[in-house]
Write a structure and sequence with these properties.
five-stranded mixed sheet, 4 domains, alpha+beta, OB fold (Dihydrolipoamide Acetyltransferase, E2P), conserved putative lor/sdh protein from methanococcus maripaludis s2 fold, Elongation Factor Tu (Ef-tu), domain 3
Length: about 375
């Protein structure tokens, strides 16, 4: 009996303990306070800006490029042979006058070939004249005089004028014309063994030495006239309307003092697909200039009224600009009057308007920003 009572008492106490635990847990859950939804605060993004001030904007088109000699001769060998010494050694920095021999290639073999062919031609004439006294007596005296004027060594004289078709066919049938023009062709080739200066200039490249065996197509050097220089530069396609042939500009060098006046003499016709620029060529005169030197300057192209100059990077893909109002981005449509390589001139902004100059990734209207006025 006592065991049964104890078992029932244990069960009753267990039920009370479980019930008490459930009640306690419910009260703890009800007593916990809801903290509510946390509000995400977005930090303002720092951006560089300028304050718009409408007024006349002067257009200055910058130009930078490298000087290049317009009179330039790239010397390549057209014949083979051994390079010989001349009166003045062909070296970088050495000057030559027009008509001076720049390079000479050994021509002994070709001269021997000319003498052999000219001797054979002379033999053909010796056989021709007696036959011509019989076949064409009226032309025999003329060819006899020509025979006496032909040397074994030396320049081949011009053929006498042919009187008619019969005389031409008579000479062609005996191979006289073939031999004559064959010799003249060798004389033309002989002229390629001497390279003369076509203008007063200076050697800028001389990769060969006397004694070098040259072959056709081999680069022998470079020769320029240092006084004829032009600057090769480029401008944006949108700037073509503001620069033209005859415009002048002041040029300077970052490598030293001095300034020079340049004049636009040519403008390219095609636009570079990768840079959207057009080549411009500027003639430059003055002392202290050298081939390969870099110069920079700008062309003054007037002014645009009631406009604002902004960095080109500030323009969006659709040609609009971002401005800042109440610490938030606002998109503004503007009229682009001029677009250069680095700057753009626009119209449509109000005085005092804060314009974003940074190129922002992932920007949108309403984005919170912290403007930094430059």
């Amino acid at each position: 009996m006592n065991d049964l009572f104890k078992r029932r008492l244990t069960i009753i106490l267990g039920v009370f303990l479980i019930a008490g635990g459930v009640v306690t847990c419910n009260k703890l859950v009800e007593s916990r306070k809801d903290p509510g939804r946390l509000e995400v605060v977005q930090a303002a993004r720092a951006v560089r800006t300028i304050v718009a001030e409408n007024g006349p904007v002067r257009l200055s088109i910058p130009m930078t490029g490298r000087l290049r000699a317009t009179d330039r001769m790239l010397i390549n060998a057209e014949v083979s042979g051994t390079l010989q010494r001349t009166g003045r050694t062909f070296r970088e920095g050495v000057t030559f006058r027009r008509g001076d021999v720049l390079l000479r290639i050994d021509d002994g073999e070709i001269r021997a070939q000319i003498n052999a062919q000219q001797s054979a031609f002379l033999r053909a004439l010796v056989q021709l004249v007696p036959d011509m006294r019989i076949d064409m007596p009226e032309q025999a005296a003329k060819w006899n005089l020509y025979l006496k004027s032909v040397p074994v060594e030396g320049a081949l004289p011009e053929l006498p004028d042919l009187a008619n078709e019969q005389e031409r066919n008579y000479l062609a049938g005996r191979g006289v014309l073939d031999q004559y023009y064959g010799i003249r062709a060798v004389y033309e080739r002989l002229g390629k063994y001497h390279i003369w200066a076509p203008f007063d200039g200076v050697v800028t490249s001389a990769p060969v030495e006397p004694g070098t065996i040259v072959t056709p197509g081999m680069r022998l050097g470079e020769f320029i006239a240092p006084g004829s220089l032009e600057l090769e530069t480029a401008i944006g396609a949108g700037e073509l309307a503001f620069a033209g042939i005859g415009d002048t500009l002041r040029l300077t060098s970052t490598e030293g003092p001095g300034s020079w006046v340049g004049r636009i003499i040519r403008i390219g016709e095609s636009i570079d697909a990768s840079t959207q620029t057009v080549k411009v060529f500027v003639q430059v005169d003055g002392d202290g200039l050298r081939d390969g030197q870099y110069l920079s300057g700008s062309v003054e192209a007037g002014a645009l009224p009631d406009a604002v100059s902004v960095p080109r990077s500030a323009l969006l893909e659709d040609g609009a600009l971002y401005s800042v109002k109440d610490s938030m981005l606002v998109k503004n449509a503007v009229e682009i009057l001029h677009q250069g390589v680095e700057r753009a001139v626009v119209r449509g902004l109000s005085d005092g308007q804060v314009v974003v100059t940074d190129r922002l990734s992932g920007a949108f209207e309403g984005l919170r920003v912290a403007p930094i006025v430059q």
